[in-house]
Amino acid sequence: MADFRVKRTVHTHTKIRNVPIAVTPEGFWCCPSQVVFQKGDLSRRKERDPSPRTNSMRRHNHQKETKSSPVRSRVVVPDEQRCPNPEPEENHRVEKRVVSVEYGEAGTRDCEVLLSGKQGFTVKLSVHRDVLAGKSTFFGEKFSATSADPCSIEIGDCEDVEIYVEVVGLMYCKDIKQRLIKQSISRVLRLLKVGEALGFNAGIRSCLEFLEAVPWVGEEEDKVVTSLQGLQVDARGVTPLLRRVSPEITTTPSGILSHILELVVKGNEEKGRREMKTLILKLLKEYKFPNNGTADVCNENLYSSCRSCLDALLLLFNQAAETRSTDTTAYSKESIAKQIALQADNLLWLAEILIDRQAGDEFVHLWSCQNELVMLHPKIPIVSRHLVSCVTARLFVAIGRGEVLPSKDTRFLLLDKWLQPLIDDYSWLLHACRSFDGKLVEEGIGRTISTLPLENQQSILLAWLGSFLKIGDNCPNLQHAFEVWWRRTFVRPFLEEQQCLLESSS
Length: 506
Fold this sequence. Notes:
The chain is of the alpha/beta class. The protein has 24 helices and five strands. It has a five-stranded mixed beta sheet. A hairpin with a 3-residue loop joins strand 3 and strand 4 (121-127). The longest helix has 32 residues, at 294-325. The radius of gyration is 39 Å and the shape is elongated. The N and C termini lie far apart (108 Å).
């Protein structure tokens, strides 16, 4: 570390502060923190608002400083801060603060650069003309425009004086990239911005190499992309970085999504498949594809996966029906049961995605037309088939909530084909499926029934009544839907008749 001297001028109120630096054999200067630049503001606030607590703390800090060992780099406090009688406030307003920084070996500097910060202070850099002219096109042009020796250049209204000072220090380094190790991404972006402003090509390359090598995600990714897109440098250095967030060849996401869906529905490891289903469902809910045809292609891929799962489920139902009627090993039956549960879970997951994307109407129709599955359903052991009824239950809930809007014929077909299989499996669903909400499903079924013409409501509810009177709590409780139908059938016609009589008599 190298010490700095405080250079003072007597005839003005200018403060020249020294700051801690480290000069390597290459001449690199380690930039002080922003706190050092702002220290003068803090000192002035303390002088304007003295308090016993502040004075006691100052005396305590003074005692600690006398006990501590001396350091090679330090901030020298100006005499004005130690003065018991501070200057009038008018003098503070015109007071100008200067931070002096020197680079390289003493006595060899032949140029000064004055950085005027918007915070109200100036940084005076004692530098070497040939170093800055050789590394920066900005300084090269400035130096070529003046013949004064020693020369002085002033850069006014610097938004980031601290980074300007550090960038000048980097011009003295042989291995700039090495100096950027362990720097934060936000700081490197600031260095990159100032480096571009000064035409410091070596620094720009090193910053781009740093950003290419380190990870950045989330908010950092947005900052990096925005900064890179605003650069005016050669695209050859920026384009490889932007490839991280945008492919070289523009492709539609439909093909990739189709491949992902295929991998998930065919996955064999239960835990990994379950976690990926949850993740993909969350991601699809967060991002909706734009209305440029991509959404339609995505839905086509989803329905293609649905049809594949339905074909696989039908094949497994046939195999399960055959094994029940023949002498088959328990291992084979268990394997088929697991595959049926897998395909049922796949269909439930795909239905959830389609419902969330407001594209589930076709799925309701597709499920309502599975006549072979409905016919095979009673032939399959309930332990193997009950999860299939979860798909039916989810569709009833979706219709009851208005999440899907299938046609009247489709709603009736769904109730006519799949309500009885759901009733047969209801007890197992209540006791074997922790995620099954009986009250929610009963409400969805009742609301779906209430959307049908009155004669269809009657046929379905009378069939339900026969099952409910036989198995009781093992059957969905549709009493509310039955009450609605009763009022519509018996009460409303009487009330309408009475209303007509009153109107005619009046």
